[in-house]
Design the sequence.
């Protein structure tokens, strides 16, 4: 029996990434020499970028929407012509 479903974990994955990355940065900051702290900035931007990509992916922006049935071409039906233009 699972208490938390996979769909629930996927829904909070961006927040988990930001929280885990923030904790990692808090641990690394005191142990990093002063002249090497600039790479922590790039690490934090990479973490935020990964969270953005995951949230964008979860919203379905990378999924391809299926075409409506009216635009699918049937190989056995003859091509249809648009109705003629009627001037008034």
Sequence:
């Amino acid at each position: 029996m699972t208490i938390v479903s996979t769909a629930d974990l996927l829904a909070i994955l961006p927040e988990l990434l930001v929280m885990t990355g923030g904790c990692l940065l808090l641990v690394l900051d005191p142990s990093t020499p002063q002249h090497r702290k600039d790479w922590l900035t790039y690490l934090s931007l990479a973490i935020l970028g990964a969270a953005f990509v995951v949230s964008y992916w979860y919203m379905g922006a990378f999924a391809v929407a299926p075409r409506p049935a009216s635009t699918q071409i049937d190989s056995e039906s003859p091509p249809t012509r648009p109705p003629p233009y009627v001037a008034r």
Remarks:
- Residues 13-20+42-62 form one domain.
- DSSP finds three helices and no strands in the chain.
